[in-house]
Amino acid sequence: MENEELKTLVKEKYGEIAKKSVAELENSSCCGTQCCGETSDYTCFNDDYSKLEGYTPGADLKLGCGVPTQTAAIRSGDTVLDLGSGAGNDAFVARALVGKEGKVIGLDMTEAMLEKARKNARSLGFSNVEFQLGDIEQMPIESASVDVIISNCVLNLVPDKHKAFSEMFRVLKRGGHFSVSDIVLASPLPEALQQAAEMYAGCVSGAIPQNEYLEIISRAGFSKVEVKIEKPISLPEEVLSKYLHGAEMQGLRSAGAVIRSVTVYGEKVV
User: Fold this and answer.
1) Of residues 198 and 188, which shows the higher confidence score?
2) N or C: more exposed end of the chain, with fewer CB within 10 A?
């Protein structure tokens, strides 16, 4: 699929998710695919936010694959940019860290998500959190204007990751940094999974090898790039069986944890 087709696919998928209630999404993971239930024996994508200051249940759509604020070193007074902010889950946690003197900007390309996030912000009475419509590959954000960038299970959905990280470098202030949770690969996916549009929207087939991911970050100009947190992800048989059969399924299983969730940190030194 072409880049614009992929973006349209993602908008449609996440627009549908935004219209669902929190109760409907309670057992969701894999960035929106229904593949995480009480009896599952695999690692779910989303982490537990319930004990974090600033956590807002109505903004938690169970779409993350980590907690980027955990390693973001956000300080009081910072301006934080949340890429792919969804209904505002990570943005509201970041707001608790920046305090009244700081500011949080959420950027998302899905109108339905922005509507949900803005509604949440209004209901909470937050005046220092704003949500903007925009494309991560071409952000409507002023250069050198933010202290910290966070993102949660979103950059794997961006077709041109080189542009995404270059834009992140552009909008960060000198001395600023990012912390992003994302999905990467330990080894190549079977062709059937790579070509599955549904698995792209589910954050799987859009993922790239971890070493390639880190190389793109370094080439964008970032320094002190480090994988802070790493954990294996296993997809359930009922999901994989839709695309893989026989030897392909056996090969993927014997390869072990092909998919990983990582939280990566990097700094803009110059």
Assistant:
1) 188
2) C
Q: Which domains does the chain have, with CATH numbers?
A: 3-267 (3.40.50.150)
At residue 149, the 3 state secondary structure works out as strand
Of residues 197, 45, 17, 235, the one with CA closest to residue 117: 17
Collapsing DSSP states into helix, strand and coil, what is residue 182?
Answer: strand
Tokens matching residue 210: 């971890």
Neighbours of 178 (CB within 10 A): 25
Cα angle 154, 156, 162; round to 5: 110
CB contact at 8 A, 172 and 268: yes
For residue 126, the tally of other CB atoms under 10 A from its CB is: 17
Which pLDDT does position 70 carry in this prediction? Answer: 97
| Secondary structure letter of residue 29 according to DSSP | B
Distance separating alpha carbons of residues 51 and 69, to the nearest angstrom: 13
**Contact indicator for 148, 168 with CB cutoff of 8 Å:** no
